[in-house]
Every structure is written in C-alpha cells, then in structure tokens.
C-alpha cells in the first residue's frame, strides 16, 4: 500500500454514465486499471483518479466492481464462497474481464527503475 | 471462483450477447486500423515529451485492444518498434553524441593523460548524468508505452512463445542504439565501453580518497542491471554481469596488486593490516551504495587474493612490524586484524599458526637458556630463605628450587601471554589453541627437568607460597599447577617426583594446608584419572589411620601402662606401596644394604615392641618395619651448671631438642657415658649400626649445626669424617628452650644428576612393566595385529601416562614373545604380524 497517494479510492465510470467508487487497493487485481491509475505515469486517469470505460455497461461494471471487492476481501483466504453471476450478462462479463486483464492478474511484472 | 447458474432457472433466463454502447463522438469508435494507429502514434510522441496528462489511458488501451482484436497485432508491434527506432535516431542519439567528447574517450584509453583528476571527474560526471537522464526518460516512456499496449502483449505477443514482449523489445533499443553504438568515428569504443571506463575511473578516484557522486553511478549500474545481453532476458546475462563486473574485478585486481606491492615496499605490516581492513570495509560500502551488492563476494575475493594472500608470508616475516614483533610487543589490535584477515583466506590459518608455534617454541627455549645463564647461588629468587644462614649463598637444593620456580613462573607468564592473545585477538580459535598447546607441550617436554620442576613448584607453593592467601588466590595457584601438569608427557615421572615431595611435606609437617593438598589431588584426579592419584590418596589415608592409631595406642597405654614413665609415641604407619621407595628405606635396593638398619636403645626397643603388640593384636598378618630416617624425636637435655662461669652458663639449663630419630639414638648413647668421655665415629657406628651416610648426616645435625650443637666434635671442622671424636657439649647454650635440629635428610629435595639418572632408570623399569601390560591387554582383545598397528595402539593407550620410545615397545614385544605371550605366525609369510597366545 503506497502511502502518499492522492486518494484511497478511485472512481470507475461505465459507458452509460454510472459511477462506482472503489478502493484503490481492490483495483490492483486488474493490471489495466493499475497501469491506468499509477501516479508515476501521469495519464489523465491517474490525475483525476477517475477511469471511464466506454465499452462497459453499468450492470457489467457493477459486477466487475463487486468482483474487485470480493477479490480484495478474500485475497488472503483459502476457503472462499462462490460469487453470484447472473446468467444474462455472463458473456458481456467475460468480455469485460478479458478487456481488464483479469485472467492474468500477475502479468504486470515489469520493473520501473 | 465464479460460477454461473445458466440454464437452470425455470424462468429460462437468456444469455445476452455482448453489445456496444453507441458513442458517436468517440474518435476510435468503429474506426479502422489507421485511425487507431494515428491515435497511438500521437500518444507515443506525447509520452516521450512527458506530455501525457491530456491522454486517456483507457482510450489508448482501447485503440490497441481493437487493433489486436482485428488481428493486426503484428503490424502494431512492428510500427511501435519502428517508431521508437526513429525517435531514437532523431532525438536521443544526437544528445548522446554531444556528450561523447574527445577527452571523455581518453578517460578509458589513457588514464595518465594530461587532464587533471578534477577535470576528469567533471567530464565523467557530465557524461554519466546525460546518459542516466536519457535512460530514465526512455525507461519511463517504455513502461508507459508497454502499459497502454498491454493488450498487444496479451492478445498477440503471448500467442507465440518466440515473440518478445513489446517492453523487452523497446527497452532493448537503448542497448542496441546507444550503448553498443560507436558514436565517435575516430574510436572503436562503444558507448558502453566508455561508460564502464568512466565508472571505473570514478571508483578509482574514490579509492584514492576523492568524493564522487555515488547515486549517479548507482543509477548507471542499475541501468546495466536492467538491460540484458539478448532478448531472452536471462538473469545471468545482465549487462552488469556480462560487461561491467568482469572489468570492475579486473581493474580492482590491478589496483590492489599495485597497492599491495607499494605497501610491501613500505614494509610496515601494521599499516598494511589496517589498510587492508579499511579496503574491505570500503568495498562493502561501495557495493552497497555505488554498484550492485552481488559483486561484493567477488571483489572481496579479489582483495583476499591480491592484498592479503599474495604477500602474506612476506608481511608476516617482516622484522620490525611482522608477526613476531606483534607477539613480542603485545600488539593486540594488529593481531586481531591479522586473525580476521587470515581467517578470510585460510580456514586452517596455516601461515599464522606456523609462526605462532615457532615463536612459542623460541620463547620456550629462551626461558631454558636464561635459566642456565642465571646464577641462583646468591639467593635472588623471591623471598628465598637461604638454607640455615640468612645472607649465605644458597645451598644447591635451594638453588634448584629457585630455578624451578623461576622456570615455572616464566612458563606460566608465557602461557598467560598467549592465552591473552588467543582470547583477545584470535577469538579463541580452536585450530590456533590446539597449535599453541602443542608447542607448549613440545618445548616443556624438551626441557629434561620439567617434571621435577613442576612438582617443585607445587611443593614450594604448598609449603610457603599459599601462606596468607585467600581461597581465590590459592585457587589460581592450583589452576596454574594443573595447567602445567596437563602439558607434561612423562606423567609417570611427575608422579614419582610428586610422591616424593608430598611424602616429605606430610611426614615433616611442612605442608601449609592439608585442605589445599587434597584439593590439588582431586584436581589431578579429574585431569589424569583415578590411577594417577591413588597413591597420593593412600598416603593421606595412611596419615589419618596413623593418627587414630596414635591416640588408640595412647589410650591403651594409659589403661594398660603400669604407671611407669612412658615415651610419648607418635606413629605413622605407612603402606609400602603408597610411599616413595626412598622414604621407605628401599632406596638402595640393588646395593649392599637392603634395609635401613639401626640398633635402637633399650627404652626405644621396648616401646617398639609394645606398639607392635598393640598393632598386631587388631590386625593379622602384617609386618611392621621401623624406619628411622624419616622420624624425629623430642629429647629433653639437661646441661649442668659449669663452675667458674658467669651468666647463663652458671646455671643448670634444660632444653627440649627436636632431633631426627637417629640423632636421638646417638644422643642416648651419651647417657651411659661418664662426663667428659668421648666416642669416636666408629664406636658410635658400632653401637648403633647406622649406615655411614645416615650417621654422617645425623652427626652433622647435632654436632656441627650451630644452633643445635649438643655434641662437641674433635677436631672442630665443618664436616664429619670417620675417626672424629664426639663428647657431650656441656657448655651448650641457647636462647630458646625448644630447639630444632636441622633436618639433613636422606631424601634430598632436589635431585643431583646421578639421582636423576636413578629416577629415570627406575621410571624406565616400571615403564617396561606398564608397556608389557598394555601390549598384553591389547593383544588379548585383538588376537592378531601388525607391528605398526600394535605400536600405535600402545602409544594411544599410554598417552595419558608417558610417551614410550618405540624401541622400548619393540624390546617389550620381543620379550613377550620369548615369554610366550605372543607369537609370530610364520605360515602366511607376514613377518610383522603378532598373535596372542592364550
């Protein structure tokens, strides 16, 4: 947990304009969002702590945010309950997961000097 | 982790296909490859210009995402690579080219160029700074680029294991286009070569005492650690390890080699030690702050090899400041450093060990030599009471005692010195401890009188030395004695001497404290085993029984005695085996007189008979032998008033004189004599049948010694000769009532050389038996052994007692063969085999 960061929270915005406020730590599971809000890079998202996902609808982003917190809550546990996934959005959710790089949470191993 | 429940609901939930949210204004929406690339290209440029706060990560990521989804990943990959190459060519390389100046190129090639160190440092630092800044920019940009192109790696690069991630490719551009390029046309050195020589130059400056920008160099070494030899990014092929480290080690080697030779020319081991230790610390520091920590073991090894090992022996052998000098002058600091350094390069510390050992030997021999050089005849040793006279030259025995104490003191002082060095400097290193002990054992045992001297030292301390000391101080003395005993090899000889000295102390009541005597014996028991001290313990037991016997006999006489005048008898019944042969009157075993003989006067014989009766009434089958040489008697003498004299002589004088037993026997002869009558030496001998030597000693005590001259001798010389005549000294006068005649004893305290020879002969004789026993015991359990094995086993078994000569063992084996304990099995033609004959 890097200290001195601007905020403990980031705002995720869905394509249809819904805003979700998420713990910064909880978004670490996604290398994409991590890179996006990394204060060293200085992209617009990092400056405002606000990420807009044009391609993701609010029900899907809602589920994604739920997953973020789910992951954060149980990140050190072994015995983890299942998460409820509505069948209707599962394909969209899969696409979003791919987009956010959730299939390989440990991918970002490059070193910054 | 995520489980759906599709298809199970009764309401028949339908899976929604992914749908797009229409965003008419979004630039990348529905656009083709070119539009997306254009967006990314602009973004890359902005990233390089550090102008990305207006960029939306998500937008860029989405653009790359789309391109990849459209299967144009390879083209994106190539275009990004090409873009970066162009960027390098246009914007970065010119900057670096400016940095690479003529003087900079010279740094690596010719150190001694005209430029001053200061100039060189500034040029170098400028170059390093430029390079570092460029690298920082590039590294930053490439990280950001890789971030927005993350989907490219996931969707395209990782699909084929041979492809290299976009980051590895772009970051490597720095290596290919900058580090490995030759920017200066006149030189064939690439930038990385220059970089390394500049870093090395800076490090050398620091070694010479300059201050350099460590963080700057750290950044550069970090850069080399981040870049790899090739695209496989193998950890072992970091540029730092492949290019920098070997050169660094090489430069360090050269540097330290030169430095070591320089130090050697100065010939000051002390400054060499301090310098080397400082260098080790500096390199640790350097690896922690300036370059990478992984180099530390290697550069330390370089120092070990070139600064320590290469000329170690020369430094140690230096005359004025070398190891010998350090030891002699107690240079504890130097020795500690030396120990630390030597243990770096050699587990066994051979060089250190050898010299320390040699020095111990030398100092040990010196002790012996000075001992020979000192004349002890003038009583210079501490508080030594010179025999009977106060300022007179010491008699030979006292001289020997003084020499013994001097020797022991010197040895102990040497031991203390090396103990201190081992403790303070050598961290109680086991190897060195063993080596020092070995040397002590060696030089102590080379000195032929060591066993006697150690025993004399204990004797002296127990007689006088511990008087008025606290328990703790006594303990220290005991500890010292034990330390010395531990070093002795011929423990059987020591046992003989100790037995003799202990007997003397006990029988003549010379011992200061029986408690301390018992303590030291129990310590010896711990160190050397039960067997070693059993005789000493027996001696103490004898004394206890004797005092019981004495009181028992006195009570018995009080009851049974018919009121007649009795002689007060104090008896010591000694068990033959526990006491030294000399005391027991067996000293001349081989000679003509096998026993000390004496014809006792009537009164005494009656007393002896009465005691024997008392003694044997409770004990069966024992034989008592009376030994006159070790006892003493209190004799009351009455000297008549001499008419015509005034003062004390005019009165009758009564004295109580303590004389040796034989002295009493001789004095009693004069009871029966008329006044003024004399006895000749021969007459006395005939009446008492005391041996000539014993009689001479006895008469010396009572007729020559000035304070107890009860008999007058004719002629009046200092020595007793056959033919002398003795009369009762009527005019004897003494200030005290109780007088003690000096003990002139058969068992002299210190041996002269012939006596020592006999002691050794006797020791050898008993050794033969011990060796016999050892051989038989070993063969009994092993049945068959080769000669070499047997000899080594025998040496092993006897190590705690003495070190037998191999020739002695050989002789004993031969002897045992003739006595048919062993045989040589001939049949298998093994001449050096022995077999036990049951």
Automatic annotation (TrEMBL), chain A:
All copies of the SKP1 component POZ domain together span 9-70
Keyword list (alphabetical) reads: Nucleus
Q: Which InterPro entries match?
A: ELC1, SKP1-like, SKP1/BTB/POZ_sf, Skp1_comp_POZ
Tell me which GO cellular component terms the UniProt record holds. Answer: nucleus
GO biological process: any one? ubiquitin-dependent protein catabolic process
Q: Name one Pfam family in it.
A: Skp1_POZ
Classify the main location. Answer: nucleus
Domain of life assignment: Eukaryota
Location of the protein in the cell: Nucleus
Q: What does this protein do?
A: Essential component of the SCF (SKP1-CUL1-F-box protein) E3 ubiquitin ligase complexes, which mediate the ubiquitination and subsequent proteasomal degradation of target proteins. Controls sulfur metabolite repression, probably by mediating the inactivation or degradation of the metR transcription factor.
Q: Which family does it belong to?
A: Belongs to the SKP1 family.
- The protein's name in its UniProt record: Elongin-C
Organism field: Emericellopsis atlantica
TrEMBL record, chain B:
- Composition bias, Basic residues: 13-22
Keywords assigned by UniProt? Isopeptide bond, Ubl conjugation
Residue span of region Disordered: 1-26
Q: Which GO BP terms apply?
A: ubiquitin-dependent protein catabolic process
Please note every region of biased composition (Gly residues).
Answer: 1-10
The chain positions of domain Cullin family profile read 449-703
Q: Which InterPro entries match?
A: Cullin, Cullin-like_AB, Cullin_homology, Cullin_homology_sf, Cullin_N, Cullin_neddylation_domain, Cullin_repeat-like_dom_sf, WH-like_DNA-bd_sf
Q: Which GO terms describe its molecular function?
A: ubiquitin protein ligase binding
Q: Which domain of life is it from?
A: Eukaryota
Task: Return the similarity comment.
Answer: Belongs to the cullin family.
Descriptive protein name: Cullin
Per the UniProt record, the source organism is: Emericellopsis atlantica
